[in-house]
């Protein structure tokens, strides 16, 4: 009988990952790679809980990576509370003219699809977990229920974007393509002139007021 492979240790890099250029953004002990949106420090509502970054309180706002990224691959695990809502927002600008992370950054939705009303809003399920929020629905079902860990891979490379959820590619698009421009024009983001225009930016974890956990956050430059 073959021995099973050892279970990966949370919030660490394997030797192969380190050699391939992966960088750990969260080691389970420190929030040093993050800060609040337009703030110097991480709001107190974000804490480390059970080896994960957890939103534990109200009103702190989104947190984001201190560094900015342009062409990259990001992986992480998320778990949402029952009825919860959050999101992974990327290519975010902190320019003073923008009031929120989503003013510039597209969002990979994090949601309890079974209980949160947003799952049935929008068009063609384009607000469900894994979707490009309010724009592109999942190509195939992939999410696990509230309380279970979901694994994300986000690829942003020369404007080409892929959302992966639990090893399934669920969204693919090209930023600033004619299809993109038409899609945004027909959405609520039409009123946000900076939306999707940032080529290099921060990666944010959204405070939507509901408890959420993130761990195993790793990134590599492409």
Descriptive key words:
five-stranded antiparallel sheet, 222 residues, 6% helix, mainly beta
In short:
The protein has 2 helices and 13 strands; from the N terminus they run αβββββββββββαββ. With 222 residues, it is mostly beta strands. The mean pLDDT is 95.
Q: Termini separation (Å)?
A: 40 Å
β-sheet strand percentage: 25-35%
Number of helices: 2
The major β-sheet equals:
8 strands, antiparallel
Number of strands: 13
Low-pLDDT residue intervals, each spanning 5 or more residues:
none
Q: What is the helix fraction of residues, given as a range?
A: under 10%
Mean pLDDT across residues: 95
Structural class: mainly beta
H/E series: HEEEEEEEEEEEHEE
Globular, elongated, flat, extended or rod-shaped: what is the shape? Answer: globular
The gyration radius over C-alpha positions equals 17 Å
Could you characterize the architecture of this molecule?
The chain is mainly β and 222 residues long. The protein contains two helices and 13 strands; from the N terminus they run H-E-E-E-E-E-E-E-E-E-E-E-H-E-E. Strands 1, 3, 4, 6, 9, 10, 11 and 13 form an eight-stranded antiparallel β-sheet that branches. A hairpin with a 2-residue loop joins strand 9 and strand 10. The longest helix is centred in the C-terminal third of the chain and has 8 residues.
